[in-house]
Inverse folding.
């Protein structure tokens, strides 16, 4: 009985093991926007406001549905709960063209290096929404041998949307929150 | 409707042709010895009146005394189905003959069973892990596999 162990398998194992070791603690959320009182010059404030207003109303979401929450995301994008009215009518498949990553569904350790790679490929500025209980903390499958306990072990998350799965209205509430967060951003951060 | 064959009737016929192979039978299943599994499977695939040419499912269950490997066979010609089981009473390196040469779907199904239970199928051309990654330690679906004792930091 011959077993062919390709180098690809061994490389995959190395990647997963390295990722697992480096993600023992969750990454802290970028939540300074909740209390920030930014003092800026009048000119910069106007430019900031216009730029942020434009950015928040036209985010290109990256279609990243992993499991059942993906269907709620698709349902939100359909005609009854339209997500086009928030500017997100084209769900981008390529990370190079997207700026909002909606992680919907359970993340497993085998998929985790791919998620990290896609997050790294997105150009700045980028935001992440964790949708559903499994993306927030592993959900019901937290104690499983193959589930990552929350995607904030691997990538920093901006908005968490609880639910199993969250209703489309819940996802729209999360999108509102992310729009408020983007409005508080400053173009000084991206010089 | 696909008729589910009664295990008792099939067990009698198998007992005539392969004496000593059937360990038990029920209204729904036939349980066969693991050494004579390949002969019985070949007979069930080729014989007139049976002709099970479609292996729908191949899984295993871990009862703590033994592993039980379950085959769901269906005949597309005669429109009936059967559940065939075999047992393995060894805990360290349990071995069962592979049915890859009879039904090609057993290729991936046996790899999955090996990955999750640790059951070794002799005669399988490429028995390596399918779901878990290559160097994963242990077989997750066994009864005695407790993940959080080995990596408590990932629970909290």
């Amino acid at each position: 009985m011959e077993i062919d162990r390709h180098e690809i398998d061994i490389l995959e194992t190395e990647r997963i093991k390295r990722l697992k070791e480096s993600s023992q603690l969750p990454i802290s959320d970028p939540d300074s926007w909740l209390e920030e009182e930014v003092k800026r010059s009048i000119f910069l404030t106007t430019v900031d406001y216009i730029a942020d207003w434009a950015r928040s109303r036209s985010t290109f979401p990256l279609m990243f549905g992993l499991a059942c929450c993906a269907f709620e995301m698709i349902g939100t994008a359909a005609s009854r709960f339209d997500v086009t009215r928030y500017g997100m009518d084209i769900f981008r498949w390529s990370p190079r063209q997207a700026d909002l990553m909606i992680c919907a569904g359970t993340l497993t350790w085998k998929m985790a290096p791919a998620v990290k790679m896609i997050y790294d490929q997105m150009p700045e500025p980028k935001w992440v929404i964790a949708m559903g209980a499994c993306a927030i903390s592993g959900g019901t499958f937290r104690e499983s041998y193959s589930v990552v306990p929350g995607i904030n072990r691997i990538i920093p998350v901006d908005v968490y949307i609880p639910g199993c799965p969250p209703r489309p209205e819940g996802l729209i509430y999360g999108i509102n929150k992310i729009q408020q967060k983007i409005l508080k951003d400053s173009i000084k951060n991206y010089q | 409707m696909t008729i589910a064959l009664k295990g008792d009737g099939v067990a009698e016929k198998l007992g005539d042709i392969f004496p000593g192979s059937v360990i038990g039978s029920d209204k729904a299943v036939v349980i066969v010895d693991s050494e004579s599994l390949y002969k019985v499977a070949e007979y069930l695939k080729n014989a007139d009146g049976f002709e099970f040419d479609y292996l729908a499912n191949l899984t295993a269950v871990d009862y703590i005394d033994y592993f039980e490997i379950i085959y769901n066979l269906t005949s597309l010609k005669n429109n009936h189905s059967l559940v065939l089981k075999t047992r393995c009473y060894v805990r360290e390196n349990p071995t069962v003959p592979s049915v890859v040469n009879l039904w090609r779907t057993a290729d991936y199904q046996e790899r999955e069973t090996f990955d999750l239970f640790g059951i070794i199928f002799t005669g399988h051309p490429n028995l390596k892990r399918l779901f878990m990654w290559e160097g994963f330690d242990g077989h997750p679906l066994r009864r005695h596999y407790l993940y959080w004792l080995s990596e408590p930091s990932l629970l909290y």
